[in-house]
Every structure is written in C-alpha cells, then in structure tokens.
Amino acid sequence: MYYPRRAFLRKSGLLALNTIAATALTPALSARIKDAGFQGQDPVTVASDEALWEPIQQAYRQSGDFINLENGYYSPAPLPVLAAQAGYIQGINETPSYYMRRQQEKDREAIKAKLASLAGCASNELVITRNTTESLDTIISGIDLQAGDEAIMTDQDYGSMLAAFAQQAKRYGTVNKIINLPLLPENDASVVSLFEQAITERTKVMLVTHMINLTGQILPVRAICDMARQKGVEVIVDAAHSFAHIDFHIKDLHCDYLGTSLHKWLCAPLGSGMMYIHPEKIPKVWPLFGDQDYEAHDIRKFEHIGTHPVTTVKAIGDAIDFHQEIGSAYKEARLRYMKNYWVNAIKDLPKVRINTPMKDHQSCGIANISLEGYSPKELADALFDRYRIFTVAIDHQAVKGVRITPHLYTRKADLDLLIKAVKDLA
Ligand SMILES: Cc1ncc(COP(=O)(O)O)c(C=O)c1O
After folding, report:
1. Residues 309, 314, 316, 321: what is their CA dihedral angle, to the nearest 10 degrees?
2. How many angstroms does the Cα of residue 20 sit away from the middle of ligand 1?
3. Is 33 exposed, middle or buried (0-12, 13-18, 19+ CB in 10 A)?
C-alpha cells in the first residue's frame, strides 16, 4: 500500500483561518513527525522504536490526572485535527447559509472520496454517518426481511446491533440465531464452521464483528463472507474497532455491508462514522429517513438526514491526513507491539488470565485480562484508585475481565506502570 507524505498543517481553502494556532502543532513538532521517516522501513521494526513515536505521542494532548488505557470507547483527536475543526467552526460560522447552500455538498463529496480511498471502496458506495450504531442500524432496519427469515449473530456482538435485530424480530417476526463464540478459538476454520453450522434454508443475513469489543479478538471475516456468499447469505460487518486500527480494505473482506465509527481508531471528531453498502445491494436497502431526490441505486438516498454538524464532516479529512502520514501498516504494528509488550510481561503470573487470543492475526491493540480474586469492577477500580490507570470492567456472560486499550499517544512508561500494577495486585 502507498502512503503519501503530507504536511499536517494544511490550509483549508475558502475557510482557512489563522486564529487557531494555539491548538495547532508547532511547526517544529510538525516537522519532527514528518521526518520520523517510517516510510520504506519494516513496520514491525519501527513499532518498538520509542524515539520514532515520541513526536506522534506529542501530537495528542491528554489530561495528566490519569493514564487513559480505555481508548476503545473513542479516541481523542490529535492536535492538528482539533485545530482544523476549530477553523472550520469559525469559518463556516462566518459564511453560514452561504456555506450550506453553495459549498457543503462539494466538501462532503471531497471527504467521501478521500475516505473511500483510505477504506478501499468507491465513494458512491459509502455514506458519512454519526457512528457505527447509525450505520449498522440503518442497514439492519433497512433490509427487507419477512416473518420467519433468519439472521445469525453471536453472543459477543455489540449490544446495540443485537437490540436492532431483536426489534426487527418483535416487529416483523424474523428469527435471530445467536451463536456462542469461543474466547480463544483453536483456529479460523473453527470460527467459520460455527457460522456455517447455524445456516438454514431460511437464513438471509449474518452479522459479523471484525474485532470483538469485549476482548479485541479479530474474526476471520473474509473466510466467513466467502462461505456465506456460497450459501446465498448476506454479511453485515461491524468494523467499529477494526477500521483504521488494522490495515485492511473493505473490498478485501468480500462483505455486503459494513459500518464503522471514525471517532474510534481514525481519531476523527466525536460523532463521525461511515456506512458502506456493496453497489449491488444499495437498491434493496430502505433509508431510515425517506428520500425522493435520488434513485434507489444511489447511495445518496441515505444522506437525507437534515441539518447536521458539517464541521465534523470536514475534519474527517484532516484525521485521514494524520492517519496517512503515519501509515496504516505502521499504526497497526505499533498498536500490536504495545499490546504484546504489556501482555507478555504479565501473562505467566499465576493469577493472571489473558482472555484475548494472541496470534498476530487474532488480535491487535486491545486485550482483556482477569485476575483471580478480583471481579472486573474490583480490578478496574484497583487500577484506577491505586495507580491512576483508567480501564473498563467487562462483566459479560462471555467474559469477565478488564479491557486494556492503549493508543498511539500511550508511552512505554504508562505500560510499565500497568505491568507493575498487575504484578503488585497479583
Ligand atoms: C463492536 C462495536 N460495535 C459498535 C459500537 C458502537 O459504536 P458507536 O457508539 O460509535 O456507534 C461499538 C462501540 O464501542 C463497538 O465496540
């Protein structure tokens, strides 16, 4: 994959303002990030070189009150993205209805083209949404299922999507089959087979989470999609945690539908997401908000959402620039390196259990641990109260533990403190 080198501090055309320098990167820091020089090097070698990552760490500003190892909920935007967004807020506020009537659509189309190039699809196959929930619930409620039609999902899918399918079952008499996913599967084939065994003549669709939020486990989405396609079953992919975290293109997955949040791993502003629909499937999905402007096959029928924060949409472009400057493969390698670093330091302690599969293709930056003698809440509380390390307790029927999620701004010293804390508590 090709990663273009670009300056972070871009001008934003018509609306560029210079009043936001206080939140922008200093030119010196910007230059250091640019000169980190990842391109051409082996991602795995670069991943462990702390000095190379230091300028990127500095591009994020975080409270010094605690160490945030809960970046799964959403990721902070780096300074250049914040600065750009502040500029857009000010600029659009100075040209309000003019911008909305004359410029908004052009800007959205430009951002969609950029997003499509990152995601590996065409821009007329995607829509910018507020988040994964909006993207996937639009699809789940928009596909035409009849009473008795079956949908397959797992016990570790995200609650909002399970709730959306449950509502469809109540409203239209569709049937949901929820399969139990193992925490530490033997191999990919066993996971594919679980989905395959659940298929019947009535199965129309399955939901597959690319990276499980509870543990960080990565599912073999492409193999599941290929199996499902042979059997005439459509696949909806929940890519909330995989997009801009692991290096993949949507087209590589062979899925029919996909939703993600851009405020998670892409570090775009809060309230930004993306919905992808395979072009052959667009005509048959009903938009949530009625539309009479576009033909059934035109993805823009999903954009009839009323007046909304266009400044967020514009700043997605700056988040893509920041992400591309690092490069998807380098970011993935760094996030996996950090997870391996802390997990390997504690995994053999007698009371520690790692609830995340550790092969490279099975997980990346997220892992979940349990500590004998501690409930999930007790462990999360102990980490926070005694060490000021913020994590999240996962008290789910499938897994009881604490989810640890570092990010690009996490420092080695933060992980060393986590390791010390777990050793003390164990
Ligand atoms: C797997 C998964 N799907 C969907 C969501 C929902 O994301 P959002 O709240 O951004 O819509 C999350 C949120 O953490 C998630 O982990």
Report:
1. -160
2. 31
3. buried
239 C-alpha to ligand 1 centroid (Å) = 9
3.40.640.10, 3.90.1150.10, 3.40.190.10, 3.40.50.12280: CATH of 104-319: 3.40.640.10
State both tokens at 65: 């009150």
For residue 422, give both structure tokens.
């777990």
DSSP symbol at 120: T
Rounded to a whole number, what is the distance in angstroms from the first to the last CA of the chain? 43
- Predicted pLDDT of residue 163: 98
The domains of the chain are located at: 104-319
**Mean pLDDT, 10 residues at a time, the chain of 426 residues:** 33 33 54 67 92 92 96 96 96 97 97 98 98 98 97 98 98 98 97 98 98 98 98 98 98 98 98 98 96 97 96 97 93 98 97 98 98 98 98 98 98 98 97
Q: Does ligand 1 have an atom closer than 6 angstroms to the CB of 219?
A: no
Please, are residues 30 and 84 in contact by the beta-carbon 8 Å criterion? no
Using one digit for the tens of pLDDT, what is the confidence trace for 242-267? Answer: 999 999 999 999 999 999 999 999 99
Task: Count Cα neighbours of 274 within 13 Å in the Cβ-side half-sphere.
Answer: 37
